[in-house]
Each structure stands twice: as structure tokens, then as C-alpha cells.
Amino acid sequence: MIHHGATKQRILDTAERLFGQYGYAAISLRQIIAEAEVNLAAIHYHFGSKEDLLDEVVLRGVTPVNERRLELLEAHEAETGGRPDLDKILEIFLMPMADKASRHPDFVRLMGRLMAEGLLPTIIQKHFQGIAARFSAALARALPDLAPEELAWRIHFMVGAIAQTMCGTPAFAPILGEPAPFHERLRRLSAFLAGGFRAPLPQPEKIEVQL
After folding, report:
1. What is the pTM of this model?
2. What is the pLDDT of residues 23-44, one digit of tens each?
3. DSSP state of 102
């Protein structure tokens, strides 16, 4: 009897680990097949292509995180009558990610590799559009005086800061010492982002005209 579910999970586990260790570009389907001890037919049966396999690995990691985010956001919006609090929104967005990272460091390593290889924007486009729209709307309600364009810029900065915090090498490693636990990192980031979202609008640059 063939246990298709167990085979699929073994392929996903192997791909996540190898992509995280060596990078997406450096790992072939043949290497994954050999490591997972399956045949090529099993890969094509479950996934079809290397790109499809990566998508499944990412989806497996982010789906429970995003489901938890939505659950917490909906509860908070119900409590506040649709006027959510900025600090709470950031906590709701970040803390489920810290929970996932603490339990599954291989997934964090994978996302770091994807960031280093320049694949993270594509991953975000594919797998985070729904959750991004939902949280952008919540942020807009929490910051009603912030123009849509300015809010979009600040969300853009937030995405970069999250990626660097989760997956990047600290620029001041000698000062910071050993990497902090993910919950501590994201609590610090949450305070930083709250200040950024509340910062005054930048003033237009004055251009002096010399006669």
C-alpha cells in the first residue's frame, strides 16, 4: 500500500531543508529525489515541477501563520468596533511569525535563502497578497490621517524590515552578540515600526533657485 501523504510530506521536508541549506538555484530535483529516497514519478505526481515544489513548501509554512493572523485580527476588530489599534495590529501580524520561526527554524533558513537569491518579492506576490490587503485595510483604519500613498510606502518599509529581522545577518553582530530569540526580535521590531508609522509626514524638499 502506497502512503501518498507520507511520501509528499517527506519530499516537502527534504526540499525545505535542502533549499534552506544550499539555496533554491543550487538544488536539483534529482538531489531532492535521492535525499528523500523517492523516484521522479513521485515528484511529478505530487508537484509537477521544481517551482511548484517550492510553492508548496512556502504555502505549507505560511498558511497556518496567516490563518492565525486573520483569526486574531478579526477578534481585535470585533472588540474595537472596527477601529483597530496600531500597536495591536503589529503584534497580531508579527507574533504568529515568531511562533512559527521558533518551532521551525528550517523554514526561516529557507526564507533567508530566498531573500538572498532575490526570490522573496515573487514569493510575497504569490502568497501574501490576500493577507497584505487585509492588514493594509486595518492599518488604514488605525491611521486615518495618513494618506494612502504614504501608508503604502511605510508598509513597503515594514516588509523590508521584517525580512531583514527574520532572515538577515545583523549589521552590528559584535555589539548584539548571539542572535536574539525570534519573539524578542519581533517585539523590538514592533516598537520600531509603530514609531515609523506614527512619524510626521516628510516635508517637501525646498529647491533654491539661483538667479
Report:
1. 0.85
2. 999 999 999 999 999 988 888 8
3. H
- Judge contact between 31 and 18, C-beta under 8 A: yes
Q: Is 106 within 8 Å of 20 (Cβ atoms)?
A: yes
The correct answer on CATH 1.10.10.60 for the domain covering 4-46 is yes
CB within 8 Å of 8: residues ≥ 6 apart: 46
CA 54 to each of CA 5, 14, 22, 33, 112: distance values in angstroms, whole numbers, following the listed order: 17, 11, 14, 14, 14
What count of residues does the chain have?
211
- 58-198, superfamily in CATH? Tetracycline Repressor, domain 2 (1.10.357.10)
pLDDT at 211: 54
Give the residue range(s) of CATH 1.10.10.60 domains in the chain. 4-46
- Residue 154: what residue type? R
pLDDT tens digits, one per residue of 48-58: 889 999 999 99
Report the distance separating Cα 170 and Cα 185, nearest Å. 11
Residue 207 has pLDDT above 60, yes or no: no
Per-residue burial over 169-185, b if 16 or more Cβ lie within 10 Å, else e, is eeeeeeeeeeeeebeeb
Domain with CATH 1.10.357.10 in the chain: 58-198
